[in-house]
Amino acid sequence: QTPHKPAISLHLNKHQKLRCAMQKSKHDEALIRLALHRSNFFTCLDEEQVQRFISSAVLTKYKPGDVLISRGAFADDNLDDEGGALAIYIVRSGTVGVYVYGDERHGNEVQALHSPQYMAGPGDMFGEGAVLFDRARSASVLAASPDKGLSELECWTVSAEKFRNFVLRSENMVSTFNKYASKAGDDGEPLMTMDDFVDSCTSADSSARTEKQSQLLKMRIANTLSILRSAKDHERVNFEDFCIFHILMSRPDPEVDIAFLLMDRHGRGYIDIKDFKEYCQSGKLFNFDESSDFIKRYFGNKGKQVIRHYSFSQFLVELQREMGRQAYLDALKQSHGKFSTVSGLSPRQFIDVLTTSCGWRLPKGVKERLENIYIKDPYKAAESTAMYVTLLHVLPFALFSTWIFLTGILCFNGRFIGPPSFLKN
Question: Which helix (H) or strand (E) holds 198?
Answer without folding.
Answer: helix 194-202
